Amino acid sequence: MRVTRFAHADRIGYGIVDDDALVELVGDPIVAGFDTSGHRLPLSDVRLLAPVIPRSKVVAVGRNYAKHAAELGNDVPTEPLVFLKPNTSVIGPGDAIVLPPESEDVHFEGEVALVIGRVARRLTPENALGAVFGVTVANDVTARDLQRREPQWARAKGFDTFCPLGPAVETEPDWDALRVITRVDGEVKQDGVSADWIFDAPTVLSWITASMTLLPGDVVLMGTPEGVGPITAGQTVEVEIPGVGTLRNPVVAQQAD
Asked: Where is the Rv2993c-like N-terminal domain (predicted)?
């Protein structure tokens, strides 16, 4: 089941993607369960939004592919390396990634995103996946020059628009075959699979929840494969997870206030 969030006329709702239509839902499927309304809307009549706005936080895993760690000259970590992105960095499909004037080297990072479906504290590897509502597509946009310069990554990772998510959440993913393909203006830049994760999802979730509680609607980014690189105004970035969806975002320069 692929669940998405959409805008139609003057309202925002949730729906299940069914071919070229949405089955409209009543309620918030991630936080409180749902029922169907009985209405179907053509996909062409709605605007897809970020399928989730994190209730409190986005937690991300760094250097979770060995080849990506190597391409940036970093050692492979011996335990998950986690950092936070603010929920204000989240945008949806079609929304613009805005390049801030504070950085001259902004990079794309296509990733698998886990959407949390229940309050999760001190999970174990054995029960961790039970806390996941599903997976969606993410782009962990990064100001690479700031990341190199500043030991704390909050600013490099946290600018507004630096966490595109969508277009839908797949509730029954194939955990061993989640493939991330990133394209810039149609050219493939990244192509990685979840089988290459250094730390798998149960390990990451148990590690994170040993120190902080994850809430329904929180998002966990699972790291990016090799091939990251810069983006410039006028380009379009696509991140695809086959079976989940393709997330497209144009890139624009920050306009003066």
From this structure: 1-51
